[in-house]
Amino acid sequence: MITVKSEREIETMRRAGRIVAGVLDLVRSRAVAGASTWELDRLAEDFILSHQGATPSFKGLYGFPATLCTSINAEVVHGIPSKTRVLEAGDIVSVDVGVCLGGLHADSAITATVGEVAPATRRLLGTTQRALEAGIAVAGAGNHVGDIGYAVQQVAEGAGFSVVRELVGHGIGAQFHEEPQVPNFGRPHRGARLMPGMTLAIEPMINAGGPEVRTLGDRWTVVTADGSLSAHFEHTVAITENGARILTAA
Ligand code: MG
Ligand code: MG
Fold this sequence. Notes:
The chain is 28% helix and 26% strand. The protein has helices at residues 7-30, 37-49, 119-137, 145-158, and strands at residues 55-56, 68-72, 75-77, 92-101, 104-113, 162-163, 169-171, 178-182, 199-202, 205-207, 213-215, 222-224, 230-232, 235-240, 243-246. The strands form 4 sheets. It has a 5-stranded antiparallel β-sheet.
């Protein structure tokens, strides 16, 4: 069932989303060579808990043990922060975080660079960000979920990259994952119709190589099958009559 949120609920999600944006700004500034992903996770959790009533959405969700997902280089999503995972110059690290406030969630992700990265890496990140923007640009009332996926896919594949198929965006609200699923591929005018008050997490996961992924033995970390780099950018948006409103902007 797809739920439609009230103005008041969307405003609460916007407040949760501001905290999410604050976490990502903080973590981006601290994602430097020598930092462990565990340290980033501690910073993120402390920041969230410093806001009255806010809690990390991921901790305990399906049994996930941390506040952040931190996924380095060929890791696509769901990497577990660890004291032994230390960032090195030239790495990219995807940081995904959710915040729950007043019983409602917001969800956003960025891929941060550690020091100087190769031009090809920079292009992957820029393309993934543009793919997210393209998806958001068509997420207005009257369009369909397939329009979002199509827009994301056009940008990603147009740049010679590939779209992960096994993992998708999602509705979000009182539950972290709600209907509908929001794939990063699709056909125009297909899928659920977008209505004012729907709230969606749009989140392209784009690989430099092939689209195939596999899950590591920790049963969480998803990596590219060919070892190529992967980038992830995400915003939570509310559908309005006049397009999508980003709820996880700073
Ligand atoms: Mg997320
Ligand atoms: Mg999400």
